[in-house]
Design a protein that fits this description.
Shape: globular
Strand content: 25-35%
Low-confidence stretches: none
Number of helices: 9
Mean pLDDT: 95
Largest sheet: 8 strands, mixed
Structural class: alpha/beta
Length: 268
């Protein structure tokens, strides 16, 4: 099983993610929040809040009588998120694996936007989320689909199969731990949720240049995109990946076809 490092993040990556995610994860998150029908006065937990863009948006929806708590294991991203804090919005360093600071039945809504695929063990976090949700509370998940790899993932696997990169092991499915629709449905049922919706939504993403595609991959993976390679090989591997990406250059930029799984479940 591949291992994701939480020590590769840098201020540069965190700031780049803050800017670039506004056109990608943030928009996907808005669609998830729409599915959850977040309402004024509700208490919400954002698990894996990153730099806080989506949590800030949700704080505007719940209003002064509601609240949003954001947690993320990356201190540099939480530092950026804290600049957005206000009376109904707060952030702290924390992980999906340990929600002990939140009492049972604390929240009306919990969501994970572009987060679940970074969790090797998913049952533990889902059990904890079930505990902190109120009866009738909603869980929302937006995550990459295991059955719909994109061009960048395929090209990365191709390049890393070559010498000298192949000497440095990475799991065959990469650093992320994506799930299929059936696997996610099973996980939700195992942890006591009533599944309301689990569906795949295709999406197309464009990056202006191959360099921009690599930069976004590095920022969104907090340095893990090529992080298993020795530092002296990362630049060379990145150049080879960029060269391969050129075949997907269109007038709109580098095209990446992929798909997200959107899930909504209730605590009965």
């Amino acid at each position: 099983m591949s291992t994701v490092s939480l020590t590769l993040d840098t201020r540069e990556l965190a700031h780049h993610y803050e800017q670039a995610s506004a056109a990608h994860q943030f928009k996907a998150g808005q669609l998830l929040i729409e599915e959850l029908a977040v309402a004024p006065g509700e208490k919400v937990l954002d698990v894996g809040s990153g730099t806080g863009l989506l949590a800030e948006y949700v704080a505007g929806l719940v209003g002064p009588t509601g609240s949003v708590n954001g947690i993320d294991p990356l201190p540099l991203r939480i530092a950026l998120a804290r600049q957005k804090e206000r009376s109904n919005l707060s952030f702290k360093v924390g992980t999906a694996y340990d929600l002990r600071e939140f009492p049972e039945a604390s929240f009306d809504v919990v969501y994970l936007n572009a987060v679940l695929h970074w969790l090797p063990d998913k049952l533990g976090p889902l059990q904890e989320i079930h505990r902190v949700l109120k009866k009738g509370g909603r869980l929302g998940i937006s995550t990459g689909s295991k059955d719909h790899s994109n061009q960048l993932q395929a090209i990365k696997a191709l390049v890393l199969s070559r010498e000298p990169y192949s000497r440095y092991a990475e799991a065959s499915d990469g650093i992320a731990h994506r799930v299929s629709v059936s696997e996610l449905e099973s996980l939700l049922k195992q942890t006591g949720f009533a599944v309301q919706k689990v569906e795949v939504r295709p999406h197309v993403r464009y990056h202006p240049t191959p360099e921009a595609a690599i930069e976004f991959a590095e920022a969104s993976s907090f340095g893990n995109f090529l992080g298993h390679l020795p530092a002296e090989l990362r630049a060379a591997a990145g150049k080879e990946i960029m060269h391969e990406l050129e075949q997907y250059h269109t007038p709109a930029g580098i095209r990446r076809d992929g798909a997200r799984i959107i899930a909504v479940a209730l605590k009965l």
